[in-house]
Structures are given as C-alpha cells and as structure tokens.
C-alpha cells in the first residue's frame, strides 16, 4: 500500500458539532431572520440557469423595483454583501481620473472614498462631523468646486444613526451634470426613499437589515443616465464578477438571451426573494410607519433611562438609534453585559463614532414594541451593574 | 390624510409562494446539499464580530488548511462565489504592468485572462485545445519567453472535464521566479492537490462542488512567497471588499486584533464549516477514492451506452465527466429531456466546449453509485426518445 501523501491531519476542532447560540440581534445588522425566510434559504439548490432560478431572479428584480420605487430596467441583486454593492456601483461608474465627490459624515463615506481612490478616481470630500447631515447648500458648494461625475451620499448612516434628507438632491446634482449615488443599506424599508421621484441615479442596499434575509446578496439599480455613463466607458471595469454589462445580461435586463456569468448564491436569492415578498405584503408605507413608531418608542425609553440621544430628532434614522455612552461607563462593559446576561446584541460605535455611542438596531422582523421593551430592560440592568462594577 | 408617495404597486408575482422544485444536480455545480449542511445554513444568524462567529471562522480556516494540505497562515474564505475568489487572487497579486501568464484550455483560463487584463496586467497565454492538458514543457516555454510574475492554471477544468497534472509545476515556476496560482474550484476534494508539497502559491476553490455547501463562499490560501509579493505592492488593490490585508486581519491571520471589515455572509460560513467538517470526517484520501471509483463506474456506463468520452483516460477529472454529443442528437434536447422527465440536471458544454459535450458532475454528496445508475437510466431513456423525435 502506498504511503499517505497527507501531511496535515483533520483538525480536531472540526470534530465538535457546530454551535450557534440564539441571540436577539439589535445591533446595526444583520437582523434576526424570520422562520419563513430561513425556510426559503434552506430549500434544496437549483442551477444558476434553471428556468425556476431565472424566474426567482425576475421576482427579486420586481421586488427591488417596488422597494426602491423605480421603473429602472437595470435593477438586480449583486452576489455579495452591501459592501460589494458599494464597490459594484463605484467600479462600474468611475474610471481613472474621473472626479468623484463623497459626502463623509461617518464610516460609509470614508469607505466609498477609499474605494474610489483605489479605482484611480480623483476623490473630493465634503465633510460633516459624525451625527450631522448635509444640506443642499453643503453639497452644491462641492458640486460647483469639483464638477464631479458622481456624488456619493449615505441615506442611513449606520455608524452614527443619521438619516440624510434626500429632497432636492437629485435635481441639484443633475443641474450640475452630476450623477447621484445613494447608499441605503441601513435605511431601505425603514425610511422613505423614492428612487425615480427623487432622481437617484444609483441606489443599493443590503439583504440583512430591514429585509431580514441573511447577508450575501445586495439589491442595486441604475437609472438611464447612469447606464449611459457606463456605456460611454473607455475601459472595462476592473472586475468581471461585478461587471454590470454581464450582470445586466444574466439578470435579463438587456433584452438579449440570458447567459451564464457566474454561479450565483442561489439560496441567498431564495431568501432575498422572501424578504422582498414580505416587504411587499406589509407595504412600504406600513413598514416606514412601523420603524418610525418603534424608534420613537425606543428613544422615549432611552431618555427615560437618563440617556442622551446622539442625533437630534429631525435627523434620526428609524432603523438604528445612537445614544451617547453615559459618563462613568465603559461601552464595552455595557454591550458585553447585555450580550452575556440578556443574549441581546447591541453595538458600540464604528469608525468616527467608535467609543462615543451605543447603537441599537430595530430592523424589519426585529422592529417590534416587544423587542424595545426587552432591550430597555437589559439596558436598565446594565446601567445598574456596570456602574457598580467600577465603584 | 396625505396622498401616498408610492407610484409602484407591490408586484403580483411576489404574492405567489416561492416554488423550488427538487432536482438531482449532476451538472458542473452546484451539487445537492446534504441535510446536515442545509440545517447549518438554516441556523439563526450571529453578528460578524461575535466570538462564536470568529471561532467558526477559525474552524473554517483549519478545515481549508486540511483540505488544501497547507500550513499557510493566510488561509480564509472569500465572501463570494468561486469567481470572486479568482478575482481576489488576481487583484491582490497583479498590478498595472505585471506580466501574467495564463494557461488556457477551457473557459476558466479565458476568464482569468480577461480579469488580469482588466487589472492592467500584461497578459500572455499558453494555449491548448479544449480537452487537453499542459505539459511542463508547454509551461516552461511560456515562463522563459514572458518572465511572468504569476502563472494561472486550472486544476479541474469543469468546462472540458480535464484534470491538469500538477507534479513539478510549482518547482518549475519557482525556478523561473514565478508564482503558481491554481484554480481548484471543481477539483478540490475530488482529486489529490497538496498545496505545500506541490509548491502552489495561491490556491482557491468554491463551496458548491465537492464541499456540497451552497455557493456564496470560497476557500483561498496564499503562500509566504505570495504574501511577500502582496506586501511589496506599490498600489492598493482595486477592491476594498477583497483586499487581502483587511481580510487577513478579519480572519485573524496577521496576529493583530481582529477588526470589522464587512458584514460577512454568516450563514454561508456555517454551511461551509459543515462542508469542511464532513470532508475532514470522511478523510481526503477516502474522498479522492470515492470520486475516482464513481467516475470510473460512470465512464464505463457511458461507454456501454455507446457514447464516446471527450477526454482521454489519463487526464479525466473525477468530478465532472465530459462525453461527446452523439451524432444525430441535439445536446439541448438531451439535457431538457433528462431534466423534464427525470428531474436530473446534466449540462451542455461551456465556452470552448459549448455544443460539443455533455457534462455530468458527481461531486461530494452526489458522488454515489446510486446516482450514477440514475443518470445512466435517464441518459438511456433520452437516447431513445430524443432520436425518435427527430425521425
């Protein structure tokens, strides 16, 4: 018998059973996944070109068009998480030397600027401190000064809890010959966004927030203006996986016979389809109202605990609430206590808000009054115990 | 009451229940997913930075090190499908102007050449007709002539059914100062590959073939030589999502505290972990033997049906068997008949093999003698009926 060529033994740790504790996920996402969506994702697979797969993709497309309120034919889901959609948006649009204006008031603007820089774009920033939003005036100044191809702005700034007003922004950008690119990963379904009426050129989101599906697919849509810019490119985008020409064909957006492009994450698509179906059944307006009402109820409860909200009322994101870390407390002790004693995830800050805030997410399936009561109880408990531990 | 701002109604087609038929997936992937892996993927989510998530990622890393037979610390799973790992490999290594040598004998070499071209690399090709493999001599000629930074070659050419011999290739590349990048999406676990012993510098695979997990995550590993080249880069890679510096940190490969990078596809990781655990339990050698035996049994059965195999015996991929489309038949009629009457997926060719072959995959969970019997019965039936229909 020949000697074994193996030099590395099967790892001991893989002999243990997979252990996944049950938690209430009230951080900035992912949210908990409702049983109906878990069941969809647990279906047996299909091939990436089976007619049923293509039909489910068509249903996803229609669901995104509803959620985004757009008629754009170029609407589909990226085979990756929200970050991947951010890259898909930027790398299909911007070429070497293109001017890109990025509104930075939290981590997502910073990330978009980083990505645009990697693509060789001339990146310009308009800045606001974390917790604040941009006025039309702030943006117009940047448009006039830098004459960008595209403006990147975050609708729901999940690192700071800010909801960016979008009224008039698309019109303003278009007056200056600029495309409007909006990140709605944390806001879609939780606060009004109307792609066509608000003249947004590129909009993307994630599956794991209000849609309450697992992370792994990301809705995206391009206006005709954005599509034309992509057609005018001089170079191929620096990615085949995210090339919108190929993806448009695979998703049946270009009227041509659909061709194999990549092996898509089929069961992530099943889950996303169910998340979109549940949003369509509830209705966008009911979803917005529900997120608004539960957020207001949470904010009231947090203030009753003596905590101070990080964002002023007019600009609060209904899906993720930020509250200042109270004096005399370590945020890490609070989040660890809430996790360990109450099996609830709440988060600290991220990027520019790190160390300053706690973040509590109420998204989709998790946006309920009962969950607010549960997290408030946990926080009250934490405020008692974590202070005691430092006396 | 304010008028509704909505202009697009919930789509009718999303009101229908999700319909996913049960099929035996004997195409080039995805494979069917065993109940244990479906159950893992159907667990409730965790956050991307929860200790249990990080531990599961550590288990995945150990599982990949076993499956790849490597001690490389820089071993992790990409948050995307196999294609995405191909891009991750190329975009982290190659910079503008770097010489990249691509061995093209099917679609995957073509894709790699396309991607490398998008990255601004100087792409050179060594070519072989579909169905053939490369000798060391073929490769050495290219190495001498083009002095590439990296050679891309496909171990399991799923479009043609060829298994590329790897013996001596790493040593040859290193003698010429070239890195060796190997695509093992379709072969990992089905045919021997020994990353360290074979001196492979970058190796990647997919989750949906022998590992029998859903598509959506992709194992990848980099040797110390490859890591050093990445450290010597003059420019940042043109992707943040796939930046190996960030990913190495998130996966705990760089010895520094792990930081949030992106919201990973958590439940795809659960599934991948189980796929790797099942491979470790079975053992690599048993898995290779099983794929070899079932492939041989299939090949014998196909020849007994009077069909001609596309690849000569010495170079047959044990996971995907290609057979010539028999004269007097339309491959589309055969695959449609097998799908519609027998609920079995088999595939036609892809890229350079399109129209020439039928492809039958036996991977992981699906590599059983019973499945071979089932697909042979279906094919016999198809050969009778599809010929009759054209008389």
From TrEMBL, chains A, B:
<dbReference type="InterPro" id="IPR015424">
    <property type="entry name" value="PyrdxlP-dep_Trfase"/>
</dbReference>
<dbReference type="InterPro" id="IPR000192">
    <property type="entry name" value="Aminotrans_V_dom"/>
</dbReference>
<keyword id="KW-0032">Aminotransferase</keyword>
<dbReference type="InterPro" id="IPR020578">
    <property type="entry name" value="Aminotrans_V_PyrdxlP_BS"/>
</dbReference>
<protein>
    <recommendedName>
        <fullName>Alanine--glyoxylate aminotransferase</fullName>
        <ecNumber>2.6.1.44</ecNumber>
        <ecNumber>2.6.1.51</ecNumber>
    </recommendedName>
</protein>
<dbReference type="InterPro" id="IPR015421">
    <property type="entry name" value="PyrdxlP-dep_Trfase_major"/>
</dbReference>
<comment type="subunit">
    <text>Homodimer.</text>
</comment>
<dbReference type="GO" id="GO:0019265">
    <property type="term" value="P:glycine biosynthetic process, by transamination of glyoxylate"/>
</dbReference>
<feature type="binding site">
    <location>
        <position position="359"/>
    </location>
    <ligand>
        <name>substrate</name>
    </ligand>
</feature>
<comment type="similarity">
    <text>Belongs to the class-V pyridoxal-phosphate-dependent aminotransferase family.</text>
</comment>
<dbReference type="GO" id="GO:0005777">
    <property type="term" value="C:peroxisome"/>
</dbReference>
<dbReference type="GO" id="GO:0008453">
    <property type="term" value="F:alanine-glyoxylate transaminase activity"/>
</dbReference>
<feature type="domain" description="Aminotransferase class V">
    <location>
        <begin position="48"/>
        <end position="375"/>
    </location>
</feature>
<keyword id="KW-0663">Pyridoxal phosphate</keyword>
<dbReference type="InterPro" id="IPR024169">
    <property type="entry name" value="SP_NH2Trfase/AEP_transaminase"/>
</dbReference>
<dbReference type="Pfam" id="PF00266">
    <property type="entry name" value="Aminotran_5"/>
</dbReference>
<dbReference type="GO" id="GO:0004760">
    <property type="term" value="F:L-serine-pyruvate transaminase activity"/>
</dbReference>
<dbReference type="InterPro" id="IPR015422">
    <property type="entry name" value="PyrdxlP-dep_Trfase_small"/>
</dbReference>
<feature type="modified residue" description="N6-(pyridoxal phosphate)lysine">
    <location>
        <position position="209"/>
    </location>
</feature>
<keyword id="KW-0808">Transferase</keyword>
């Amino acid at each position: 018998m020949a000697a074994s060529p193996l030099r590395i033994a099967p790892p001991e740790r893989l002999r243990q059973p997979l252990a996944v504790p049950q938690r209430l996920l009230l951080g900035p996402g992912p949210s908990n996944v409702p049983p109906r969506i878990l069941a969809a994702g647990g279906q047996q697979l299909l091939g990436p070109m089976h007619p049923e797969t293509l039909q489910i993709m068509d249903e996803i497309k229609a669901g995104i068009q509803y959620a985004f309120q757009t008629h754009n034919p170029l609407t589909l889901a990226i085979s990756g998480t929200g970050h991947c959609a951010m890259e898909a948006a930027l790398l299909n649009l911007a070429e070497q030397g293109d001017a890109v204006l990025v509104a930075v008031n939290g981590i997502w603007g910073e990330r978009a600027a980083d990505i645009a820089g990697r693509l060789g774009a001339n990146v310009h920033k308009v800045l606001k401190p974390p917790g604040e939003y941009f006025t039309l005036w702030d943006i117009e100044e940047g448009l006039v000064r830098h004459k960008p191809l595209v403006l990147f702005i975050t609708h729901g700034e999940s690192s700071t809890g800010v909801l960016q007003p979008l009224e008039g922004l698309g019109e303003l950008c278009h007056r200056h010959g600029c495309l409007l690119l909006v990140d709605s990963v944390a806001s879609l379904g939780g606060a009004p966004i109307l792609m066509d009426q608000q003249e947004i050129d590129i909009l993307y989101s994630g599956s794991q927030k209000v849609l309450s599906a697992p992370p792994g697919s990301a809705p995206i849509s391009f206006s005709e203006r954005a599509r034309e810019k992509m057609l005018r490119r001089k170079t191929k985008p620096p990615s085949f996986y995210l090339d919108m020409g190929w993806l448009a064909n695979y998703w049946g957006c270009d009227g041509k016979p659909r061709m194999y492009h990549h092996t898509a994450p089929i069961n992530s698509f099943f889950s996303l389809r169910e998340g979109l179906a549940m949003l369509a059944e509830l209705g966008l307006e009911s979803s917005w109202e529900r997120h608004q009402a539960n957020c207001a109820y949470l904010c009231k409860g947090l203030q009753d605990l003596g905590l101070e909200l990080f964002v002023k009322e007019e600009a609060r994101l209904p899906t993720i609430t930020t509250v200042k870390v109270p004096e005399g407390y370590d945020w890490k002790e609070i989040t660890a206590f809430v996790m360990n004693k109450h099996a609830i995830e709440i988060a600290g800050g991220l990027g520019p808000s790190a160390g300053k805030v706690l973040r509590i997410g109420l998204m989709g399936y998790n946006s309920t009054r009962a969950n607010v009561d549960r997290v408030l109880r946990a926080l009250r408990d934490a405020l008692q115990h974590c202070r005691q531990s430092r006396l």
